[in-house]
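Exercise 7. Given the components listed, write out the predicted structure of the assembled complex. Treat all entries as one system.
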Amino acid sequence: TTHTPSFLGLQQGLGLWKGSNSGKGVIIGILDTGISPFHPSFSDEGMPSPPAKWNGICEFTGKRTCNNKIIGARNFVKTKNLTLPFDDVGHGTHTASTAAGRPVQGANVYGNANGTAVGMAPDAHIAMYKVCGLVGCSESAILAGMDTAVDDGVDVLSLSLGGPSGPFFEDPIALGAFGAIQKGIFVSCSAANSGPAYSSLSNEAPWILTVGASSIDRTIMATAKLGNGKEYVGQSVFQPKDFAPSLLPLVYAGANGNNNFSVFCAPESLNRSDVEGKVVLCEDGGFVPRVFKGKAVKDAGGAAMILMNSVLEDFNPIADVHVLPAVHISYEAGLALKEYINSTSTPTATILFEGTVIGNLLAPQVTSFSSRGPSKASPGILKPDIIGPGLNILAAWPVSLDNSTTPPFNIISGTSMSCPHLSGIAALLKNSHPDWSPAAIKSAIMTTASQVNLGGTPILDQRLVPADVFATGAGHVNPVKANDPGLVYDIEPNDYIPYLCGLNYTDREVGVILQQRVRCSEVNHIAEAELNYPSFSILLGNTTQLYTRTVANVGPANSTYTAEIGVPVGVGMSLSPAQLTFTEVGQKLTYSVSFIPFSEDRDNHTFAQGSLKWVSGKYSVRSPISFIF
Amino acid sequence: DQSNLSTYIVHVRKPQVIQSDDLHTFYYSLLPESTKTTNQRIVFTYRNVVNGFAVKLTPEEAKALQQNEEVVSARPEKILSLH
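Answer.
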């Protein structure tokens, strides 16, 4: 957050921050591990009182209670000792400050990523609902947190947590989110970190904004330098000034370890005699957290660690706060290191630390860990919806990592970090468009998203090949454009009833979600793809499928939009009408789109992607389309 | 035996007319007798996002609870992860 606002086009006193009053008066409810109220990111200097509708309470007592920034704090984690919403993990403090932290100058970790840390909606209020502890987040607490947040009067809910895919009537976040959107509350959730595997998503309900993670154009650069002179660029946050860049013996942990876990540098898996004073090459994976690998190397007397990605993680190193000199490199670089180790009897290496570098034109790039669609719970809805910054994100932390006297921050990665970026952006849109429904805000964010990186080429994934629609969803969030989308696809809560019945849920199951008796036999069932969603997910068989969509004009009163379609090989599309002419603000027009299979041309592909754009002057209202054959 | 207790999420059909203040009493009335002689078993009651409550039960008590016609479902809660 020392860089993500500018990366997203947010500037103090200008543009969207000015137009949305930086989220003033909007309340973001965050379900997480609690919050550190002492952190300057949560100072209330210059903050107004909570809006009159605020109905929440603060459980902090004593020296620090809530203020005009943190206006509510509750604990739903039922343990014997912990009864207050303090953050004993750090995650909640990080996500809360990412969504709505106040500006803090001189924020950095070990001197890196230095700048003014500020949340996406710095003038929004925060309400923390502690529902997670070190062991995770219980469903009963999550429901309690969401139930209370709805009562309290939050405007946006942010959940950087989740479980595996499941039917919506058994998914507490889907249930809580439905109750929230019925009250006009926008819900943003993390897509999960189980990528790059397909169908690995959390939080897939269509009434939720499902957020994947991408990189920013900032790297915390370090380089592995080998005895043969070759250099391989990677990342690390911990860059000790006293580490001399002289060549040291290099050893592959998998070659000398004392058990099968040594290749992953699992705790206590390394022999001191093999690694002492050496640079140790470790492999990522093995269910060992990256920082723990460094600790294992350090505990065994290793001088430094070079951490190579797995084949699936590929070109996607992550900057971590390691406990020893270290660099995280790509899979390909790791293979080169292994080859070098095998090629000589005296392999040597060192690490060169190069600090913070801004300007990577490949950003945004989908992270390897970001979960991918298609959605298992509802394959006819394209998920994730959007990607946003989630790699190497600096934000507030309860305790100092580097024993400095400046306020504590940490750099961590995950869809947990991308979700609050979107929550904060949603808060900005809530301020500038108080009459927009949660679905309209979501539509605005999705249809204005970007499909290209800073270099102007298609957004790549961890393999450095163009990311597919199951990785990016609608694309990378563009907050400034989202504030002025031209058209929106709106959905009222009751519009989900025919959709849910169309999922073949029973009356009882739909009733659990709706909190009312529903007879699907008396409701028009619709196919999932018929929901008025801002994207399409088409399960294409041998017959033509026709769907209708309704768009509302939120741009200039008199405007004419012309359709532009992008069709993959093996699919035809037809649109009626091909032009939409509006004469009023708020006017709604309906169009129909047909997807026509040409099965002979599919080249054995299992899926393809396309797009449908409505274009009028500066406006381009884009819907991504996935085709599953 | 406290170690045999798990937290269950219970969905119910609420009576058409019920005051918020009476919800806890209504949910309590659905619980098997065995749960009423020990410590408070209801963990949370919900009133906005679901019709139901969370309660600590043994598997046998959960089965008994589901005999109530007002109970739509009762299933043990899961632990979700930070992302």
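Discussion: Chain A has a mean pLDDT of 96. The first helix of chain A runs from residue 4 to 7.
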